[in-house]
Amino acid sequence: MGLPNVDERAGHRAGTGSVGVPATGGEGHTRAAIVRLLLEEGPITATAIGSALGLAPAGVRRHLDALIESGQARAGRSAPWQQKGRGRPAKQYQLTAAGRGMLGHAYDDLAGAAIRQLREIGGEEAVTDFARKRARTLVDGIEPLPAHRAEPAVEEPETADDSGRSGTAAKAEEIATALSDAGFAASTRRVGAGVQICQHHCPVAHVAEEFPELCEAELAAFREVLGTHVQRLATIANGDCACTTHVPLTVLPTAAADRPKHASPATVAQPATDAPNDSGRSAE
Predict the structure, then answer these.
(1) For an engineered disulfide with 131, which of 34, 55, 97, 217 has Cβ 3.0 to 4.6 Å away?
(2) Cβ–Cβ < 8 Å for 174, 259
């Protein structure tokens, strides 16, 4: 999984700030490492946390209990499909909105004020133009794929077209890596006939709540790079635990791709470790 060591995880990383959980010395480094895992890999079990960080179960649970008591983390039972073996489902832990908020949202007030002023001077068009330019910087340097030819999805034996599908998945991983470098703690995973880009942290979430143009422009930038229709299933700005974007690997007909869709709770996938991006960034 390529996880950094405890001391590295305790340090600062672009866009995430420091972890504001009371703890001192080595305890603080360990707590920060656990918070980072909850952010990037959650929901995650205490056993998985211990294995990743080389910690005893009792020590992991002590930190998790402290995070839950402070309202920065919560526990829930594993879904049936996540359960391994028999017995009672294991608890899975993840950060709450309050926990993510402790990671910092640098200069939110200043950024919000600046965009409001921009809107007063140049109108909505100026805000939209700014959002588009910002979104393009997130994927700057990633070579776009050619636009996909819309064809009905049918069952076919493996052909040369499969290389195009794997190319789309690889390009989605490039996007996730770029997003992680920008502080979004992103990962990818295969889900059915597609791949999902999960952004487990958003450095501009508070600003995006007021200016959804930021999220819309980001999605448009993904479409441009991937050369295909993509669908946003969830956003942190709307109160979800992650920003989840579905990228189909089988191209749908144009009419179906353009038809508005509403993701059901079962469709909006929770961040998991099925096929994480090797960048190691992976939400409440």
Answers:
(1) 217
(2) no
What letter represents residue 147's amino acid?
A: A
For the chain, domain boundaries: 6-101, 108-258
| Rounded Cα distance, 165 and 158, in Å | 11
Q: Can you tell me whether residue 193 is helix, strand or coil?
A: coil
Q: Give the span between the Cα atoms of 276 and 273, in whole angstroms.
A: 5
Amino acid at 185: A
Instruction: Encode pLDDT of 36-64 as tens digits.
Output: 888 888 788 999 999 999 999 999 999 99
Helices 46-53, 57-69: axis angle to 10 degrees equals 120
What would the two tokens of residue 152 be? 């009905």
- The model's confidence at residue 278, banded by pLDDT at 50, 70 and 90, is very low
**pLDDT for res 118:** 95
Q: CA 127 to CA 115: how far, in whole Å? A: 7
The CA distances from residue 20 to 3, 29, 240, in Å, are: 21, 12, 22
Is 96 in a helix, a strand, or coil? coil
Q: What mean pLDDT, rounded, does the chain reach? A: 76
- If you classify domain 6-101 with CATH, what class do you get? mainly alpha
Long-range contacts of 246-250 (CB under 8 A, 24+ apart): 246/191, 246/194, 246/195, 246/196, 247/168, 247/169, 247/172, 247/194, 247/195, 247/196, 247/197, 247/222, 248/193, 248/194, 249/165, 249/168, 249/169, 249/193, 249/194, 249/195, 250/153, 250/165, 250/193, 250/194
Look at residues 103, 95, 92, 102 and name the one whose alpha carbon lies nearest to residue 49. 92
Q: Which amino acid is at 1?
A: M
**Class for domain 108-258, per CATH?**
alpha beta
Find out whether the peptide bond into 43 is cis, omega within 30 degrees of 0.
yes
What's the pLDDT band for 14 if we cut at 50, 70, 90?
A: very low
